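Narrative of accomplishments. A recurring question from our advisory board has been how the design workflow behaves on a single, concrete structure rather than in aggregate. To address it, we present the structure tokens for one chain from the evaluation set, followed by the sequence designed for it. No filtering or post-editing was applied between the two.
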């Protein structure tokens, strides 16, 4: 793996990540101004951001895997994509709906949405970077 491609892929992923979490940062500033910064944890905004990040992770890794010339076992790819959907995307959507539709939300869901948000950031950084590396290697190989 070329170090320059790896470095550039990380820069790309982090620049995309910054814009993805921009609304959360804006809300933190608003809640801070209101003196209630902890209220960010009691809205569905973290679940929404998780949905976006996990979706971006799926797109980035599948795009990279589809363009790479590196042979991959389809079973492993299926496991990764299925796991992202079942353990990331689906719970984030469910929690967002529960928070928005329920009057009394169990405290567990707020904690779980925060953990999903943090996890989605890590997954995007790791799998998104891998997908971006595959995309960049393919472009370099094509002379683009």
């Amino acid at each position: 793996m070329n170090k320059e491609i790896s470095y550039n892929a990380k820069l790309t992923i982090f620049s995309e990540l910054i814009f993805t979490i921009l609304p959360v940062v804006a809300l933190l500033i608003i809640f801070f101004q209101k003196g209630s910064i902890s209220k960010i944890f009691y809205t569905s905004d973290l679940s929404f951001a998780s949905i976006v990040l996990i979706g971006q992770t799926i797109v980035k890794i599948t795009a990279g895997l589809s363009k790479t010339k590196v042979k991959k076992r389809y079973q492993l790819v299926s496991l990764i994509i299925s796991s992202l959907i079942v353990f990331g995307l689906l719970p984030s959507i469910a929690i967002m709906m529960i928070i928005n539709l329920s009057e009394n939300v169990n405290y567990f869901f707020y904690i779980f949405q925060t953990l999903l948000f943090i996890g989605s950031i890590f997954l995007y950084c790791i799998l998104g970077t891998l997908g971006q590396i595959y995309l960049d290697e393919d472009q370099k190989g094509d002379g683009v």
